[in-house]
Amino acid sequence: MTRLLLPLAGLVVLAALPGFVSEYGLGLMIGAVTYVTLASAWALFSGYTRYISLATVAFYGTGAYVVAVLNEVLPYPLVLLVAALIGGAMALVVGLSTLRLAGVYFVIFTFGLSELVRQLITWYEVNVTGTLGRYIFLDISARGIYWQMLALAAVTIGLTAWIHRRPLGLALRVVGDDETVAAHSGINLARTKLIAFVLSSVILTLAGAIVSPRWVYVEPSIVFNPTVSFLTVIMALLGGANRLVGPALGAVPLFLTFEWLSANFPDTYSIFMGLLFIGVVFALPEGVLAGVDRLRARKLRAAA
Amino acid sequence: MTRMTRRGALRILALTASSGLALAAGTATAQEDPVTIGYAVARTGANATGAGITTIPNYELWVRDVNEAGGLTMPDGSQRMIEVIEYDDRSSNEDLVRAIERLASQDEVDLILPPWGTGSNLAAAPLFARFGYPQLAATSVTDMAPQFADRWDRSFWMLGGGHDYASGLVDVLKGALDAGTINNQVAVVSVADGFGIDLIKAARPAFEEAGFELVYDETYPLGTSDFAAILSEAQSSGADSFVAFSYPPGSFGMTKTAQSMGYNPAVFYVGVGGAFPVYPDIANGQPDGVMAVGGVNADSPEIQDYFERHTEFVGQPPDSWASAITYASLEMLEQAIERVGLDKEALSEELASGTFDTIIGEVQLENNQLRDLWWVGQWQDGAFRAVGPADKDGAVAPVIPKPDW
Amino acid sequence: MLTTLILGLVLGGTYALLALGLTLQYGIARIMNLAYGELTLIAAFVVVAAFQAAGIPPLAALIAVVPAGYALGWVLYTVMMRPLVARSESRGRLEIDSILATFGLLFLIQGVLLVSFGANFTSISYLDRGVNVFGVSVALNRLIAFGICVVAAGALIWALARTRWGLVMRAVALTPGSAPLVGIDVNRVARQGFALGTALAAAGGVSVAMYQTFSATGGVVFTMKALVIVIMGGVGNVAGALIAGLALGLIETFVSTTIDPGLTMAATFLIFLIVLLWRPQGLFGRG
Q1: Which chain C residues contact residue A278 at CB under 8 A?
Q2: Does residue C226 sit within a domain?
Q3: What number of C-beta contacts closer than 8 Å exist between A and B?
Q4: The model's pTM
Q5: Cα B221 to the chain's mean position, in Å?
């Protein structure tokens, strides 16, 4: 019972927080929760399967773009629904065609995919609709965005926990360990990967849709910012992509660090970010949580 | 009577004492309490180049100029130094929004200077409005400025819209067409980005109305680095005028490519970047005759003085388009503060209705917009001079046809 | 049509030069180097600085920059990549680690470039008069860049095919597991491959500096183009990279002139994705 109660109580506290912080504090919380959502959703697929996807922003940006196109035509909940459907359909097409790629090919493919989506939307806007740059004048307060994003983050982590105990979760872990073994043990590889990929992508798309009213002005070059993909990856890896709360644990401190760096060292921000990245890869290859576990194991051994 | 006098005297004494205290406090704050000015501009990412040329150097130059003169003058004649709080928005609107929230609600700065670029300024506008800060958007080109000014009444749009620049160019070319120096065919390319699309959309009808024919009209993606194919198509189209609504990499790339392939149209026009200080180097020391967006009155002593100060402080001259406007917008702010102080509402009203003396001459905004702008400039004798609108004070006559590279 | 052909080939030359280094780094050293474009930019900025400050012509700078690139690659491999190679048991693990580590390197170099050279677009004018090639006017600097590419690729293909050094390289590229059995020091060869790749990146940077406009934040474009070519040509396949590079130049020019300049890059990525799905081993790789 406590296993369920504790997270719920935490969620209630987090939901009540906006009443006690400044606008900037709320902005920080939105940013942090957004990255918790992105990193957790990314890990939902990539954490188990070890397929490093750099397509995060392809879905995140699509979500924002759908809102920009439809925000004056449809009521907001419907816009979100359409965004989720489009993200899911996109993931289905991409997943069907690419999930047999492995390793570095998948990484590069997903990187290329974000660029391709951006180019095609730009071309379409320029040549068909003749407008580049759209406005989102939705009357949603920062608190509203925060609550929606918090709910999405909770759903993502809850979903990951739930999948974890289903056959799907087991199958995903086997795929991550060894695809050949997975195939031999009768797991439908393609279907397993596809389901996880689509679920993860729908969440990424929704995250983009929810956060977009904060931007007001949307352009392909603004919403398809590749840095988002990279940040998501490093956050999830820092915390530990194959742990339930690992991505969240990586996202919050990294997000705050970047915020602090950009405030205090605007000129040298990207140098620090690069060093941090390299540091994570070298010092904590399995994530902080695994590092903590190792440390604890060593202490136990020392005590015994 | 005596009692009253005594009382009166006491009151006078008390008044003198308190005003003496107030005076003392006033001078103390002048030294201890600077005016905090914050801004979030791209130091990294895709916008860093533009912000690094136009926005950041001018903000820093202005702060230095003001502080060297003893600080910002307040309505009561006291002076307060400027203290800057700066954040990097990493060229991301999400980060920009947060940085402005931080400046307003955490740092509680007295004033916020706007970010670089059209999209950034639009993303920032609702926040400036919510926190009540005036926003002097000096690097935002948008045809929707009137609507934005209505929506956010403390936003000021200082760089015109794509429509203005396109029709400004057509006016200049129309003059040459009427004089018989060019044929009525135009080859035009545009970058697939908000700016390029705004301009080409306005330019198509304007060109046709003026009797021009667009014999080549293509859009290329942001990030294109090779223009040989595009320019050879334009060259073989038979047009006398080549027009590129481009961003700096494209403007530079097309210039170099045109030079190396010996493409010498009578009119060679590029977009953003043509007025940059590096352009003459890009053009191999032969920029003369090239037209581009923007322009300054190169003969005005104020502009010449500004160019000198900028060169001395930054190490290179400013660009001849939005830089001067940016600096002028800061001068407006400075003068408005001297008249009404730091109250945001009074400041916004003063900016909207006052007249200001700046490096680009006397400035008065119309409906929160700066309309008295240069639309077209041309390199002449090594300086980028404004040629259009032709009836504006300080305009020079365009040189058409352009001398060969 | 002839114009398209010549312009496309000349453009493809620079692409191919850029891709050669990346294909060596990935093929031999097994490092997927996402900071490749930034390494190119370092060379480009150094060349421009030398040209502007001391008037050293880029072709002369080439002689100094390429060995410097080799040295930098050597150091990078020893300090940064070697520990990653040493700790990874599987190839997949190394690939992921190297992608993440070089991504950090990308930011690091970009930051250093921004701090030291600023955010401005940079370019120089060097030998940019037009030269007539079969009736098509091509800039001399582009032709020289093309020449550098042909010479570098030719030398590399010859060395790989005909020398003992090349034999060792190929052995490591094909079967890193069994190369030690025949007495090959895999670590040394991988380091050489990585350093040589960096030297080629530097050569690519010199040719970029000669005729393109670039800024400190634009490295990722070069990396992307080089990646596309490497995948098309087949990883570690030098001749494949050369042909794919030239082909990409032709395709871009062709799409730009006959279809729509707006679709140039989309076409590049589309072809790239198709090749990835249809023949992940590359058009010229052995299946």
Answers
A1: 80, 101, 104-105, 108
A2: no
A3: 103
A4: 0.82
A5: 25
